[in-house]
Specification:
With 623 residues, the protein is an alpha/beta fold. The protein is 25% helix and 21% strand. It is built from 13 helices and 26 strands.
Length: 623
């Protein structure tokens, strides 16, 4: 593909071009509706505290030009072929910094697995070279693997914002590891750090969790701009509209910039809905609801929960929070001073019946249809305190996480049968996601004006689509690179290239207390058991001649119901008798031979009968 000629990355050596490509989307004005002011949070609920003035993004510190011998290696250890387990290593002249350390939730073909963490074998033996762990924000797909990986790395210092560190400490407390944490709190996006040969700068990012930070990793060969998970909000409830244009200064004539951009929304047209619109719509529903309001949302959306509480408080309503993660996160946010409300506004969920229905707002987890989450228990009639009423208004203030479509549909079906007022984003703007869409991606590239572009943090097809979005506005395709987990992008004074060499990356499964002890063989066995069940065959043989004693016992689990299949079970038993009787009495009993014979022959026999392949577990008892 021939690059569009009007693309010219901005450098500090010449003025910025004003062609069609660089024409940024006009910003929407901040709405200052006086009628909304009483409902706005009394304290800051944006990504950074309002008592900290918003300053320009830090300017680059001049560094001496690097020779071609100096190289930065960018190595994704996770997050490039899936949604989750985000972790990237940056290595320059023997020093290493790591950005994020997240988990990935299991896929449908991973029975029994709790979650998956990054493969960090590349860092083994390099622990002393690690100068710090940088965390962009507090979602589990960015911090969830810390309890498992940090002990392996010797507990290097973690650098993160206040809210992120509070969530990290709570995560480590669950494993009794909080005393090992060495942490440095980033109090302002204007802070600059020197970690070995790296200079680290930060910038404010809008996301669905408070205190999200973008990171600029400065080296003599390249400046890496990494927003983490991000979105635009050009019409926020509080604070200023999102603006990344100051990041363009990091692409200079002597040191180019590379934009590593999360690309989850690269197939969705348009822009994310402004949070102010979500605020207005939910406020209207809370005001006009004839009965209780039940709002299901993500527990990490502290800003949204905060202004829901403020709206309810202003209207004289009580708020009940339910769900472990919801109550924990709000408790943390209150403890660090990011939200405030009257102590009398919050009530225990058990006391919801003490107030008129139109004076109660319930904010809970479970919008993804999780089996034991609060909203699913309410829908199934299993919640101890809340039973659905026709007059309730139920709001799904959330997006659909890929893979949860069926469970959410079942949840909605159940709620629609019991309630006349179910609201979700397909009907009304009650949720704005935390990830940028196609028009947002175009605006980011136009504002940042990087020299190189690396789509990240998504499935491979989404990375490819992110690259297509960049090319659609003239970004030169030769400067776009798509990495896999384990790929090595090497940047020197001669440019950026992806090496043929790859670091081996495998799934590291966490199952209960076991980490990495579940192999693909174990997973395959679980898949087989889930698909076709198992058959246990117990035979007793004479230790002297291998002849069968008595009748074989057959136990079926997940294969067939034995009482309804007596004929087939009896045929199987006769087949086993024939196999064991054919054993040569002149030869000593070979237990392994008998087991293998039963496993193979009976497996084929059952497949012939039912076209199923259960796991065959032979047990041979010698007497």
């Amino acid at each position: 593909m021939t690059p569009i000629k009007n693309y010219q990355p901005r450098t500090n050596s010449r003025p910025a071009p004003r062609g069609r490509f660089w024409g940024a989307r006009p910003k929407k004005p901040i709405v200052t509706n006086e009628a909304l002011k009483p409902y706005l949070p009394t304290t800051n609920t944006s990504n950074r505290p309002t008592n900290t003035p918003i300053r320009p993004i830090a300017t680059p510190i001049r560094t001496a030009p690097a020779s071609s011998e100096h190289k930065l290696k960018i190595i994704p250890l996770g997050g490039q072929e899936e949604v989750g387990r985000n972790m990237t290593g940056f290595e320059y002249d023997g020093d290493i910094v790591v950005l994020d350390m997240g988990l990935q939730f299991p896929e449908e073909d991973m029975p029994g697995i709790d979650y998956i963490i990054p493969d960090t074998r590349y860092l083994k033996g390099k622990e002393r070279q690690i100068k710090g762990i940088l965390l962009s924000h507090g979602h589990l797909d960015h911090i969830g693997a810390l309890p498992h990986i940090m002990p392996q790395l010797g507990w290097p210092t973690v650098y993160a914002s206040k809210m992120t560190l509070a969530l990290v400490r709570r995560r480590l407390e669950e494993s009794n590891l909080q005393n090992y944490l060495k942490a440095y709190e980033i109090k302002s996006s204007q802070e600059r750090l020197t970690l070995g040969k790296f200079k680290i700068n930060f910038f404010d990012v809008t996301h669905s969790i408070m205190d999200a930070l973008g990171v600029i990793i400065q080296t003599p060969v390249v400046n890496v701009i990494h927003p983490g998970d991000w979105r635009y909000d050009l019409n926020p409830v509080t604070g200023k509209p999102t603006d990344f244009s100051a990041l363009a200064q990091w692409n200079t004539k002597t040191v180019p910039s590379v934009l590593m951009m999360e690309s989850l929304g690269s197939t969705k047209e348009g822009s994310q809905i402004p949070e102010l619109e979500v605020f207005r719509n939910i406020k209207q529903l809370v005001e006009k609801a004839p009965g209780r309001i039940i709002i299901a949302t993500f527990s990490s959306m502290v800003e949204r929960v905060s202004w829901i509480i403020n709206v309810a408080e202003t209207l004289g309503k009580k708020v009940a929070l339910d769900g472990y993660s919801m109550k924990t996160t709000i408790e943390i946010a209150k403890k660090v001073g990011y939200i405030k409300f009257k102590p009398t506004t919050l009530i225990d969920i058990k006391r919801a019946h003490d107030y008129p229905d139109n004076k109660v707002v319930i904010v809970c987890t479970g919008a993804q249809g999780e089996d034991r989450a609060v909203l699913m228990r309410i829908a199934n009639g299993e919640h101890r305190s809340i039973k659905i009423k026709k007059t309730d208004t139920i709001i799904f203030s959330s997006s659909v996480i890929p893979g949860n479509e069926r469970s959410i549909q079942r949840l909605k079906d159940s709620l629609y049968r019991q309630c006349d007022n179910v609201i979700h984003k397909e009907l009304m703007g009650v949720h704005g996601g935390g990830h940028a869409l196609i028009e947002d991606i175009k605006l980011l590239i136009r504002q940042v004006r990087p020299h190189y572009f690396l789509p990240i943090y998504a499935n491979h097809y989404l990375l490819k689509e992110g690259a297509k979005v960049a090319m659609s506005i003239g970004f030169p395709p030769q400067n776009i690179f798509i990495l896999d987990n384990g790929s090595i992008a090497e940047v020197s004074a001669n440019g950026l290239k992806v090496l043929d060499q790859k670091i081996p990356i495998e799934y590291v499964f966490v199952d209960g207390l076991g980490v990495g002890d579940v192999s693909h063989v174990v997973l395959r066995d679980r898949q087989m058991l889930a698909a076709d069940g198992m058959v246990v065959i117990v035979v007793t043989v004479d230790a002297r001649n291998g002849q069968l004693i008595g009748s074989p016992d057959i136990i079926s689990r997940g294969f067939v119901y034995m009482k309804d299949n007596k004929k087939m079970i009896e045929e199987t038993r006769n087949k086993i008798k024939q196999l064991v009787k054919n054993q040569n009495p002149a030869v000593a009993t070979d237990e392994n031979y008998i087991k293998d014979k039963i496993r193979n022959e009976i497996g084929q026999f059952l497949f012939t009968k039912l076209e199923r392949r259960p796991m065959i577990l032979p047990v041979v008892i010698e007497v």
